[in-house]
Amino acid sequence: xxxxxxxxxxxxxxxxxxxxxxxxxxxxxxKWRQATRHxxxxxxxxxxxxxxxxxxxxxxxxxxxxIMRTSCLQDLTISVKRTFSxxxxxxxxxxxxxxxxxxxxxxxxxxxxxxFEKCGGQKIEHLVWGSAHxxxxxxxxxxxxxxVSLTLEKAVLSALDLNLLFSVCPKLxxxxxxxxxxxxxxxxxxxxxxxxSMKTLNIEGVSVESIVLEADKLxxxxxxxxxxxQFELLSQGSLEHLTIEDVSISHLExxxxxxxxxxxxxxxxxxxxxxxxxxxxxxxxxKKLRLCGLLFHPEEEAMDLKTISxxxxxxxxxxxxxxxxxxxxxxxxxRSALFEKVVILELGTSKLNELFVQWIASFLGCCPKLQxxxxxxxxxxxxxxxxxxxxxxxTSSMIDLMRQFSFVDVKFEFS
Length: 415
What we know:
This protein is of the alpha/beta class.
């Protein structure tokens, strides 16, 4: 180690996942102290660095001393389940303001600290802010000219301030909203957002009445564990990846944005299938399609997998769930459907039976280039003799079936 250049030592310490270990290592010798001061670029304070038996004052001293020993910190993460003094956090930010490019801060402060106010105008490119306190945003004061990625967790903010974020962050490409409380005015229940730069939007654990998003450069949109009466995307057709999981939406509209879709993942989503199917039907470049846990309305017609195979000829990854007695899948596939390019197939069920085996066999006959098959099944914990017999029968049937498709790599995952 003595022969290593001091820059290399600093780089090694920057890859240590525990800031506490970095603090200990920096006391090893003079060379390592110098490496920490002049060449340490990254620090991560995780929960393990401040265990419960460590006093609050000891935790604050550890973080303060470790940060103050550095002079060129570019990436700082503080994810500790403790409440820190706002004055102390301001001191950490002021010490690193000339070099810091990435900040992750998930701890609450007392009193609440407006990080936008303390970090505005700095060089920060990536910001993750948990338990965020966001008072009214002033576009004149709060400016993040370099911010590219922003994640807000457990934040309380108004719809107006959420929209203003795009004006104070002109380069923002990635926005993630997780478990946020977004308030709207009494006169307008629709949240209107407009961004000329955003490429990725992630929304989790949010419940609002209506969102209208205008984002011509949006390439990836992820909606999870959220509730919307209406969600409308206005775009020129740049969307490539769409994920909707555990979401309730009365009306979803993505317009021309579907034309360039390459990946669609939809799970646990109450949907009017004809409406959703029509919405993505123009995605001729679709390569990955996952549909699972969908709640169809009883009066709807069966999902036409033959039409899907014709509309999406480029599919190479397909995942579907089978539900016993569900007409939407039970008769939805036959020899007439052909998925010529599918090489990865994932099929799941909540109940093992012979019909599921027949369903699998139908897919194997429709995917001539299949390389990998994954079977997902849910098995009850309290297994009866009948359950064991069904599992044994299913296993035997699958063995017989896969002898005909020995070129396919098969994997089973039971939960």
